[in-house]
Amino acid sequence: MTEIHYLTFQVGSQQFCIPAEMVVDINRNCDCTYVPGAPESIKGILNLRGQLIVAFDMATTLGINAELNTPNPVSIIVDVDSSRISLLVDQVGDILSLNESTFETPPSNFPAHIRQAVLGAHKLNTTLLIVLDPYLFIKGLIGNSNPGNTSASDLLILSQ
Amino acid sequence: MKDVLPLLSNVSNSISLRAGRSIKCVLILTDMQNNDEILTEFILEAREILDLLDTEFIRLESTPADNKLIGNIFRALHTLKGSSGFFAFKRLEKITHAGESLLGKIRDGQITLDPPRIDCLLDTVDVLRIIIGGIEKTKLEPVGEDQKIIDQLLAFAKTQMTSGEASKKEELVKEVPVSIASPVQDIPVESFSVQKNPASDSVPEVSNQERAYDVSAPVKVNLDTLDRLMNLTSEMVLARNRLLPFANNSKDLDFSQTVRSIDLLTLELQERMMKMRMQPISTVWSKFSRLVRDLAQECKKQVNFIQIGAETELDRALLDSIRDPLVHILRNSIDHSIETPPERIAKGKSETGNVQLKAFHQNGMVVIEIIDDGAGVNYERVRQRAIQRGLITSALAQGLSKKELIELIFLPGFSTKESISNLSGRGVGMDVVKNNIVNIGGAIEVLSEEDIGTTIRLKIPLTLAIMPALMVGCALETYAIPQNRILELVRLKITNNENPFDDFYGTPVYRLRESLIPVLYLDQELSIQKTSNSAAASVNLVVVQSSGVRFGLIVDEIFNIQDVVVKPLGPLLSKLTRYAGATILGSGRVSLILDVDGIAIESGLVGKIQANPIEQPELAVNLPEDEWSMLLFELEGLKQIALSLDRIEHIVMLNTEQIQQNGNKEVIYYQDELMHVVRLQNYVSGCSLIETESKVTPALTCVVNQKTYALIVNQVHDIILVPQKMHELSSPQRGIHGCVIHQQDVINVLDLEEVVAMHNVHDSTTIYPLVIDVQATSQ
Lengths: 160, 779
Prior knowledge:
The complex is a heterodimer of chains A (160) and B (779). By secondary structure, chain A is mostly beta strands. Chain A has one domain: CATH 2.40.50.180. Helix content of chain A is 14%, strand content 44%. In chain A, the strands form two sheets. A six-stranded mixed β-sheet of chain A has the order 8-1-2-11-10-9, with helices on one face. Chain A is globular, with a radius of gyration of 15 Å. The relative contact order of chain A is 0.23. The radius of gyration of chain B is 33 Å and the shape is globular. By secondary structure, chain B is of the alpha+beta class. Chain B has five domains: 4-214, Four Helix Bundle (Hemerythrin (Met), subunit A); 223-280, Helix Hairpins (Orthogonal Bundle), CATH 1.10.287; 282-461, Heat Shock Protein 90 (2-Layer Sandwich), CATH 3.30.565; 466-620, Roll (SH3 type barrels); 627-777, CATH 2.40.50.180. The two termini of chain B are 63 Å apart. Classes of the chains: A mainly beta (160), B alpha+beta (779). At the A-B interface, β4, β5 and α2 of A face α10, β17 and β18 of B.
C-alpha cells in the first residue's frame, strides 16, 4: 500500500487535489497576458523566470464559476508531459498523504467530458476529494477543441 | 554511450583481423533500448563519415598523391565497415568492403586515382547515404541490389594490374563479402560472452590508429540540452537583475562584492551561451564542393570553386534555412552563368570559370556573396521574356533600367533559359530564394554585368531568436509586429468625427498615395472586446506586407521599435495562427508577437488573392512605372523639397545637443555609428540661414561614398509618388537638381551629391564656391 502525496487547493467552494510530485512552484505571480482567440479555459501566458507558461483558469476549466472569486489567486506551476502549465486557483491547502486503497475511479455513468480533467476521488471521512489530472485536460486541448465544458453541477453531484 | 560504438566497431574489426577474416562474429545486445541508442549513434557517425568522405574525395581529386589523405579516407571507410558489421548491415558492409579494396590499391600505389574512379567512389558514397537514410527510417537495412556498384569498384580496383595478379586478387575479393555475410545470422547469442574477451585484449592497438582520425572531433551535444541550458542562462540573468537593486541599496560591502562577482559571471555566461548557438558557415558549405563539382561535370563546364570566410559564424537555426537558397544560387551560377570552355575562350576568358563563395560580418549582419565570372544576366533576354510572359507591356519594358530588370527575376515563374535542364530553369527559382531569405529577416541583392559576371549578395541577420519589432498598443495590451513586415506607419487626424477611411461597399479601405489598401482593425481581428475608445483624435495605421498583399492594421497606440527575443507559444497555443510567438518585455510581462501572414489569412485577405493567382505578381512587386517615390520635407525658408526615397536609409530624430565638433565639421554618434551632420539649409539655394533652436530635429540619413551623412531638415512631410520626368532648372541652383511636378505643385529635388561635395570642401568661411565639380570632389 503506497502512499501518494497530494496538494489540495480550492476553487470556489470546491476542494480538489493533484499529485504533489507534479508541482514545481507555487506563487502569486498571476499577471498574465490575455491571448485573444485562445480557448476559454486559458487565462493567458505567464512569465516564470523567463519561461512562457500557459495559465489555466481552473474555475472556467472546471466550469464552477465564471471567474475565480478571490481577488488574489494563486498560481500552481505543474510539470506536465515535459511542458509546464500554471493552474490559477483561489487558495492552496495542505499536502495530504493518501493511501491508494481509498482511491476510486469515476463511476461508469460519469459524464464523458468531465473525464478530461478528473482522474478519480479519494474517500475521505466526510467527503470525496476529487483528484485532477492536468495531463488529461492538456491532452484534450492539444488533440481536440475546447474540453473545458465540464459543468459545475456535474461536479457537485459527484462530490455528494 | 558515445564511446561505445567506436569501441565496439574496433572490437569487431579486431576480431575479423585476428581470425583472418574467415570468422566474423557479431555482438548482440540483449537490451533493445540500448540497441536503439547505439543505432542512433551509428547513424550519426555514419553520416559524419559520409560527409567527410565527400569533401576528402574532392580534395583528393586535386592532390591525388596525398598519401595522408588517402589514409584518412581509408580509415573512415574502414570504421564504417566495422560498425556495419556489428549491426549486420550486409549491404553496407559489402559496398564499403569493395570501396576499401579500391582505396587499398590506391594507397599502396598500385593504382593512380583518375576522374572515373573518383566518380565511382562518389557514387558509392551516394549509395551508402541512401542506405543509411533507409536505416534511419525503419531501423532495418533497406533491400536493394548493389552488385553493379560493387562490380564497378572491383573492376576499377584491378584494371591497372597485370592480368595474372588481377584474377588472383579478384577471387580473393569476391570471396570475402560472402564469407562475411553468411556466418552473421548463424552466430548464436551465447557467442557474445565467448568472443568478447579475446576481442577486448586487442583493442588498444587498433584504437590508436582510429584516434588519429578522431582527434579534432568536438563534443557533440544534444540540441535539446543546449536549448535548455540557454533557457536556464536567461533565467539566471533575470534572477541576477532582481538581485542587483538589493546590492545597490545595501551597506554591507561583502554582500555588494559578492553580487558584483555574480553579475560579472552571469554576463560572461550569457555571452558564452550566445556563442555556443553560433556555428561556422562551413557546416553548410562543406557539402558544396561536391555539389559544384557534380554540377560542373553535368554541364560540361570547368569551374574553380573558391570559399572565403568559411569560419564566419551564424545561428544554427539560420544555417538550416540558408542552405537551400545557397544551393539554388550555386546551381544558377553554374548552369546559367558560367559558360562552356569553348565559349569562354571565344570571349577571351580563361577556360575555367570561377565561382566564389564569400561570407563576412558587416553591421551586425552576415553577408554572403556568390560571385561568378560567367555570362551575367542578359538584360535584353530578361526584357523579352518578361514581355512574352505578359508580366509587363512592351512599352513599359523598353524604359526599364538594369536594376528594375533584375527585380523581374524575382517574379514567380520567371526563367530566361530557353530549355529546361534538370538542374535549373523550371521556373521555381529566384522568387523562392527571395522568399526564404526575406522570411528569416534577410535581404537579397543582385549585381550583374553582361559577360563579366554576377554577384548575388545575401544579407542575413546573425540570429533568428532576436528580431526588431514594433510595439503597438491595442485594447490595453501591448503587441509586437515584426519590423521586416512593416512598410510604413500612417497617423491620421480625425476632424469632426469623420471616418478617415473610404467605404468599399462595407469594407473599409484607405487611400495610400492613390492606391487603395484594405484596412483591418486589430481588435476586431483578434476579437477583443474594446473597452472605450469613442473619441480618439487620431488613428494609427501600420501598413504591412504579407505574401503579396499590402494592408493597413489599425492599432490604438504605437510605441517604439525594439529588439525582442522570440519565444514559441508552445503546443497548447500553436493552433492560434495569428501569433508568431511571444516575448518578455523589460517589465517582465509577456507580450504577443503578431503573425502578419496569419492575420492576413484569417481575415480572408490572402485567400482571396490566391484564388486569383495570375494577378499575384503584380501585387507582390511594385512594378517599375514611370513614377518614383520621393520623401517630401521642409527646410528653413524652403517649404517643399524632396529627395528620392532610394537614397534615404532612415529618418531619425537627433538631439542637437549631442552633435559634436570634429575639426570644423559636425558629427554625431548615433546608434553605434558616426555620422557627418549636414545642415542642409547651408547648402541649398533659397534657404534662410537662421539656426533652429529646437533641441530635437528630424534628420535623414544617407550613405554617399560609404560615408553616412545625417541631413538636418526642419520637418518631414510625406512620401509622394511623382512622375520621373525631372524638369531642368533654367539657371543652376545650389544644391538643387531640378524639380518635379506633384499635383500641380513644383517640388525641388535635392542634389545629394552636390550637397555632400559642398559639405566636404566647405571650410569655416561662409563663402561657398558657386560652381563645384561634383565628379572631382566626390571621389
